[in-house]
Specification:
The chain is an alpha/beta fold. It folds into four domains: 113 residues, PAS domain (Beta-Lactamase, 2-Layer Sandwich), CATH 3.30.450.20; 172 residues, P-loop containing nucleotide triphosphate hydrolases (Rossmann fold, 3-Layer(aba) Sandwich), CATH 3.40.50.300; 74 residues, Helicase, Ruva Protein, domain 3, CATH 1.10.8; 45 residues. It is 50% helix and 16% strand. The protein is built from 20 helices and 16 strands. The strands form five sheets. The protein has a five-stranded antiparallel sheet with strand order 2-1-5-4-3. The longest helix has 33 residues. The termini are far apart. It comes from Lutispora saccharofermentans. This is HTH-type transcriptional regulatory protein TyrR. InterPro entries: AAA+_ATPase, AAA_lid_NorR, Homeodomain-like_sf, HTH_TyrR, P-loop_NTPase, PAS, PAS-assoc_C, PAS-like_dom_sf. It holds the Pfam family PAS_9. Keywords: Aromatic hydrocarbons catabolism, ATP-binding, Coiled coil, DNA-binding, Nucleotide-binding, Transcription, Transcription regulation.
C-alpha cells in the first residue's frame, strides 16, 4: 500500500474515531437514556447508567435481543420489539424491573434499499414526574374535599344561628358528632324549635348527603294510609291499588336518610312493623309476604314525652329504646333568649330581601321581642318578623308595632278580677302593678313612659306615690 493511501486511511480512521468519541460523549452526557439496536433487534450501544435504570449491567444488555430483554423481565414491553415488528416510529410508557417508568420514543432507521438498519430508543425517566403528578392530583382532590366540607359546614352553621354562649352551640357540636355515624337519632323539643332543620343538617353532614332525604310527617297522613305510604304496596293489595304497586318512603329513601317527624302519632299496630323494619332493615309491603331490604339512616322527632307515653301504654317501650339511641333535646326559645337578637337580624334580612324593603327595629322593639315568651318558638318569631315587615307602614318598627303583632293590641297583660272592691282602689291597684311591672322590664322611667304613653314626670310622680303603699 502506498504511503499516500496509508495516510488517507489513517485520517479516515481518525475521523471515525472522533465521530465515535463524539457519539459516546452525546450518549453519556444526555439527560435522556439512549439505546441503539440493529435491524434484528440486537442491542449495540447504551447510554451510561443502565445498571441504575434496569438493575442489570450494560454488558448483560449489549448483545442481547429485544426479545431476550422482555423474557428476562428487564422491561415490561420492549419498544424496540414493537418498532422491529411494525417498522414505525412509536412512543410508549415502559416500566423497568426496578419499577422505574420511562416515556420511550422508538425511531426506525432504514438503508437505501428500505431495509431496517437501526432502531434508536430515546427514553426519559418520568417516575418522579408521575409521582409528583399523582401527589398533586391527590392534594387537589383533598383540597376539593376540604373546600366542600368547609362550605357544607359553613352552610349548616349559617342555618344554626346562635349566640356563642347559647346552649345551641353545644347542640350544633353534638349534631356534628352524630352525623358521622348511622345510628338512629331522636330529636325532642317543642313545636317550632327547629327539629326539621337539625334533621336536614345531620343528613347534609353525613356520608349519605348525595342520596335522598325523605321527610314524613306521621301526624299528617291518615292512619289507614300510613302503612302503605311508609312501606308501599303490591299490585292488587286493596281496592284502588295502582297497577304495578307503589314504592313506600323507605324504598324511596334507600341509601339516604328518612326523617319520621311526629313519630308519637304512629298507631300501636304500626309501631310493631316499624320496630321490625328498624331491627332487620327490611319491610313488608302491604299485600306481600316477601320482605324488601333497605339501607337508610333513621331520624325521628317528636314534641311529646315518649317516656310518659310508654308509661301510659301509648307507645311501645321496645320501639322507644330502639329510637332513643342518640337523643338530642332542642331547648325552647324562651330558654335561650340571647339568641333572639341574632335570629331577629337574620329574619329581618331574609324578609327585607324577599319583599325589597329595608325596615329595621328600634331598640324598644328589640326589647319587646326579648320580653315575649315565644310559645311558638323560632317558627313564631320568623312569622312575627315577616308580618311586621309587611304590615308596618314605617321604615322603623317600634315597640307598639311589636306589641300589636304578638299580643293583638298594645296591651301587654290581661287584667284578672278576683273580687269586688271599690273602683278607685281597683284602679290604683292595677296602676301600681302595671307601673312596677313596667319598671322591672324596661328599667328606666323614660322607657316606661314611652310604653305606657304617658309623660315621664307622671311615671316618677306615681312611682313615688305607690312606693310606700303596701
Amino acid at each position: 500500500m502506498e504511503k499516500k493511501q496509508l495516510e488517507e486511511l489513517l485520517k479516515e480512521l481518525e475521523h471515525h474515531k472522533e465521530i465515535y468519541e463524539e457519539m459516546n460523549l452525546i450518549l453519556d452526557t444526555t439527560f435522556d437514556f439512549i439505546s441503539i439496536a440493529d435491524g434484528e433487534g440486537m442491542f449495540l450501544r447504551l447510554s451510561k447508567g443502565s445498571e441504575e435504570i434496569f438493575s442489570v449491567s450494560e454488558d448483560e444488555i449489549i448483545g442481547s435481543s429485544c426479545y431476550d430483554v422482555e423474557r428476562m423481565g428487564i422491561v415490561d414491553n420492549s419498544v424496540t420489539r414493537v418498532v422491529l415488528e411494525t417498522g414505525k416510529k412509536i412512543s410508549s410508557v415502559q416500566i423497568t424491573q426496578g419499577g422505574k417508568r420511562f416515556m420511550v420514543i422508538g425511531i426506525p432507521m432504514f438503508d437505501d434499499k428500505g431495509r431496517l438498519k437501526r432502531i434508536i430508543n430515546i427514553s426519559r425517566d418520568i417516575t418522579e414526574i408521575e409521582k409528583l403528578n399523582n401527589r398533586l392530583k391527590e392534594t387537589e382532590e383533598l383540597l376539593d374535599w376540604y373546600r366542600y366540607e368547609m362550605l357544607k359546614k359553613q352552610e349548616c352553621e349559617e342555618t344554626f344561628i346562635y349566640n356563642e354562649a347559647s346552649s345551641m352551640k353545644k347542640i350544633f357540636n353534638l349534631v356534628n358528632q352524630v352525623s358521622r355515624v348511622d345510628a338512629t337519632v331522636l330529636l325532642q323539643g317543642e313545636t317550632g324549635v327547629g327539629k326539621n332543620l337539625i334533621a336536614k343538617t345531620i343528613h347534609k353532614l353525613s356520608s349519605r348527603r348525595e342520596n335522598p332525604f325523605v321527610q314524613i310527617n306521621c301526624g299528617a297522613i291518615p292512619e289507614n294510609l300510613l302503612e302503605s305510604e311508609l312501606f308501599g304496596y303490591v299490585e292488587g293489595a286493596f281496592t284502588g291499588a295502582a297497577k304495578g304497586g307503589k314504592k313506600g318512603f323507605f324504598e324511596i329513601a334507600n341509601n339516604g336518610t328518612i326523617f319520621l317527624d311526629e313519630i308519637a302519632e304512629i298507631p300501636l299496630y304500626l309501631q310493631v312493623k316499624l320496630l321490625h323494619a328498624l331491627e332487620h332493615h327490611e319491610i313488608y309491603k302491604v299485600g306481600s309476604s316477601s320482605p324488601t331490604k333497605f339501607n337508610v339512616r333513621i331520624l325521628t322527632a317528636t314534641n311529646k314525652d315518649l317516656k310518659a307515653m310508654v308509661k301510659d301504654g301509648g307507645f311501645r317501650e321496645d320501639l322507644y329504646y330502639r329510637l332513643n339511641v342518640l337523643p338530642i333535646f332542642i331547648p325552647p326559645l324562651r330558654e335561650r333568649m340571647d339568641d333572639i337578637p341574632l335570629l331577629t337580624h337574620h329574619f329581618l334580612s331574609k324578609y327585607n330581601n324577599k319583599y325589597c324593603m329595608d325596615k329595621q327595629l328600634t331598640m324598644e322593639a328589640h326589647k319587646a321581642l326579648a320580653q315575649y315568651k315565644w310559645p311558638g318558638n323560632i317558627r313564631e318569631l320568623e312569622n312575627v318578623i315577616e308580618r311586621l315587615i309587611i304590615t308596618c307602614g314605617q321604615d322603623m318598627i317600634d315597640a307598639s308595632h311589636v306589641y300589636n303583632t304578638v299580643y293583638g293590641s298594645n296591651e301587654r297583660a290581661t287584667i284578672e278580677i278576683n273580687g269586688i272592691i271599690p273602683l278607685k282602689q281597683a284602679v290604683e291597684k292595677v296602676e301600681k302593678e302595671l307601673l312596677f311591672k313596667a319598671m322591672e322590664e324596661f328599667k328606666t322611667t323614660r322607657e316606661v313612659a314611652k310604653v305606657l304613653e304617658i309623660d315621664q314626670s307622671t311615671v316618677v310622680k306615681k312611682l313615688n306615690k305607690y312606693k310606700n303603699i303596701k
